[in-house]
Design a protein that fits this description.
- Four copies of one chain form a homotetramer.
- By secondary structure, chain A is of the alpha+beta class.
- In chain A, 22% of the residues lie in helices and 39% in strands.
- In chain A, strand 6 and strand 7 form a beta hairpin.
- Strand 5 of chain A pairs antiparallel with strand 5 of chain B.
Chain lengths: 143, 143, 143, 143
């Protein structure tokens, strides 16, 4: 399960997709079947009570999995999230959301992954854990 | 499973929490164990390809479930999402996200709900379906 | 979403697969995008405390979804469960497990369904709710 | 997250609950926040095609999580599965089902865990992955 794109290449590709001037996501590391990403903190990620919101943690998980698929299947791929299950485990203090993603299965039609989320404000606490499936388009890459 | 707050009361309460000048969510209907909400369209809900993003659909599902808990358990409640599982079923064309939420279980410690999401641009197509659990604080309401 | 097999045909097909002398599952009704099944009670479905076990409820959900796919896609199909998410909502008293299944999406590669489970001993109580995805083999039916 | 029961104690306790003469589950290892269990092979775990069935893998995941809760919270506990999400990743060849379980969160009211399943016939292939929540009864242990 060797990656075929570097962290920088994945980051550039995702940045292009967002069409925003500022950077949203930093890809810190791409490994064999793994990735480490950082969703950069913005005020609108907080919900009442000054904790990182559920949708922000979902976004972090979804982007980490997207980075996993891209880095291991290549830029031609238009993968789409098919299922995502997320457990919220602890309050996430304001900060970047660090996600550690891991491939569980990389099939021809479906990729299944997990992601563990942490806040940079308290990086020892697992704040959320997600598993997700991405549908992969046919007739790509390996044909 | 009778509601104890009106649609307008729930909408006001949620609006207060967001601290935004513009309205984000409209509560269209509160029924017995059910709710119908509308997440108002904004450009930043779109992802490349001009379809409503996964995080926006997640947000719609999460808010519909939050509205369900509030309307049936009352304003004192500080419920937090514990688990959310979402299946993405079809491309969501740009528009408001309409969610139909239903209570599956309203226990003393846990509420379990489902939500079905549609785009106002094509309201006959089910674009996503979610189930979720919310942890309810102790010593509230029924004591 | 019209079914293409009758309840009796689906039941016979599933019974063949199990290779057991006794009947395990009864298909009570096949509708448009829906199915009603009954997992027949057996002592080994109980867990300590004399309630129907989680694995038995999972089995009921999985078989209801399998019956849904079969009845709407035809007997040639070898669908396999890809993901199943189940919420346990109430104690299930000893009895048959009645499942009401519904198709959320029937795509070319993936079917997504939900199933609501009840015990025949207390058929008004929703004891579990599941959503699941089944991978469909390629080059079937619609080609 | 230190365990408070040994592997043997957990195995004995679970065996008592099942009221079967033969052993169903072997607890191979209890660690800090982790457990390794083995669901012993029986013919009725197979489904057509001679692969281990979904319900058998679900049972393995559920028992591994139950062993995790027991070993880390003690024998007085009557935990019940609240939610279980399982992804089926590869065909499981006939054999014991080995589960590696890990605690993601051990709160006062809810334990969240993950379990990875392998077949002893091919122990290098991850055949299924599950995450689950268990509701913990109040006023136990830590009072």
């Amino acid at each position: 399960m060797k990656p075929i794109m570097t962290a920088q290449e994945v980051e550039n590709l995702i940045h292009l997709g967002f069409e925003t001037p500022h950077k949203i996501l930093s890809i810190e590391e791409v490994g064999c079947g793994s990735v480490r990403t950082r969703l950069l903190f913005r005020e609108n990620m907080l919900r009442p009570g000054k904790i990182v919101s559920g949708p922000a943690l979902f976004t972090a998980a979804d982007l980490a999995m997207y980075a996993l698929v891209l880095s291991h299947s290549g830029p031609a791929l238009m993968a789409v999230t098919s299922n995502l299950n997320i457990n919220f485990l602890a309050k996430a203090e304001p900060g970047d959301v660090i996600s550690v993603g891991k491939i569980l299965k990389l099939g021809q039609r479906l990729a299944v992954m997990e992601a563990s989320m942490y806040s940079s404000a308290n990086p020892n606490v697992l704040v959320a854990h997600a598993t997700g499936s991405y549908a992969l388009p046919l007739n790509q890459g390996k044909t």
